[in-house]
TrEMBL record:
One of its GO terms (molecular function) is lyase activity. Pathway: Metabolic intermediate metabolism; (S)-3-hydroxy-3-methylglutaryl-CoA degradation; acetoacetate from (S)-3-hydroxy-3-methylglutaryl-CoA: step 1/1. Residues 6-275 form the Pyruvate carboxyltransferase domain. Belongs to the HMG-CoA lyase family. Keywords: Lyase, Metal-binding. Its EC number is 4.1.3.4. This is hydroxymethylglutaryl-CoA lyase. It comes from Psychrobacter glacincola. It comes from the Bacteria. InterPro entries: Aldolase_TIM (IPR013785), HMG_CoA_lyase_AS (IPR000138), HMGL (IPR043594), PYR_CT (IPR000891).
Length: 300
């Protein structure tokens, strides 16, 4: 049966922008976050504390959180990605509400994305998770390439189960199941989710589906049918990963919200205001709006 309420995590300020080659000014990122919150988004990925040599676009991580500080909303969860203790030390000054440690079900993707093996990544994440928890900060784990990998092709669900187990062992309270390159189809995504369920409760799991092959909304529905009630989405469908060539953005937040509301599932989000947020950032980036719902509503 379907959940009655779904939590939307808008990842556009991080996943949506990290792949932009042109530097997006901090003020534009701040305006995007303000717009998302005005639309009712209660959880978002603000930035990542990764190496600026690897992902230059996130190099203003500290400046952005400083800019957000005076108007920080107590009822909004500001998440940041943290790959190692160095990133945690930089992030902690800004008191994020949640940190995201991000591993992979594919060995090759792990090497390409964070320059270490899966097991090494868990060793790096363990002190990060412990330090976050000691400071009362929530810890979420996200697993990339749970269905397919740009380097290895199809990924065996047992790999998803293994990484889920390891992330929970070191303290992850939530696990995101990511289809990084958007190759998944509903039954394959359900298989990956079932593998994670060997170690995680359903309430701990979230879906993170990229839309490269146009399957992300179908995959979202397939996850909803299993009872998953949290999804990472990106306004205007922005995004991609610098280490997953050709992958497009996450499923558009507007499209997911429209589907959920149409199914009688609440999100707390105002779709019209969300469309404004997506239009503003798309115009700034000079890109067509990647949300079907946004385009339909604008042309109505
Ligand atoms: P490394 O080069 O192996 O790190 O990178 P290192 O520990 O050897 O350090 C090398 C240099 O980087 C040192 O500086 C460190 O201080 C510095 P130097 O001495 O040369 O001047 N450094 C840092 N600087 C700032 N912040 C840090 C940091 N760590 C080291 N945190 C590392 C390892 C993990 C840092 C690197 O590979 C990296 O930053 N990778 C990030 C890749 C990334 O952000 N990918 C995109 C996000 S993941 C994603 O999009 C998938 C997701 O959406 C889910 C899905 O769709 O699948 C989440
Ligand atoms: Mg992603």
């Amino acid at each position: 049966s379907y959940p009655k309420h779904v939590t939307i995590v808008d990842v556009s300020p991080r996943d949506g922008l990290q792949n932009e080659s042109k530097t997006v000014p901090t003020a534009v990122k701040q305006a995007l976050i303000d717009d998302l919150i005005a639309a009712g988004i209660k959880k978002l990925e603000a930035t990542s504390f990764v190496s600026p040599k690897w992902v230059p676009q996130m190099g203003d991580n500290s400046a952005l959180l400083e800019a957000l500080a005076p108007t920080r909303h107590a009822d909004v969860c500001y998440s940041v990605l943290v790959p190692n203790m160095r990133g945690f030390e930089n992030a902690i000054n800004h008191r994020p509400d949640e940190i995201v440690i991000f591993g992979s079900a594919s060995e090759t993707f792990s090497q390409k994305n964070i320059n270490c093996s899966i097991d090494e990544s868990i060793e790096r994440f363990a002190p990060v998770a412990a330090a976050a928890k000691a400071q009362g900060i929530k810890v979420r784990g996200v697993i990339s390439c749970t269905v397919g990998c740009p380097y290895e092709g199809e990924i065996d669900p047992s790999k998803v189960a293994y990484v889920t187990k390891r992330l929970i062992e070191i303290g992850a309270e939530q696990i995101g199941i990511a289809d990084t390159i958007g190759v998944g189809t509903p039954l394959k995504v359900q298989r990956a989710l079932r593998a994670a369920l060997e170690y995680a409760d359903i309430a701990m799991l979230s879906g993170h589906f990229h839309d490269t092959y146009g399957q992300a909304l179908s995959n979202t529905l397939a996850a909803l049918q299993m009872g998953i009630s949290e999804f990472d989405t990106s306004v205007a469908g922005l995004g991609g990963c610098p280490y997953a060539k050709g992958a497009t953005g996450n499923v558009a937040t507007e499209d997911v919200v429209y589907m959920l509301h149409g199914m009688g599932i609440s999100t707390g989000i105002d779709l019209d205001k969300l469309v404004i947020a997506g239009e503003r950032i798309s115009k700034f980036l000079g890109r067509p709006n990647g949300s079907n719902v946004a385009r339909a509503l604008i042309n109505k």
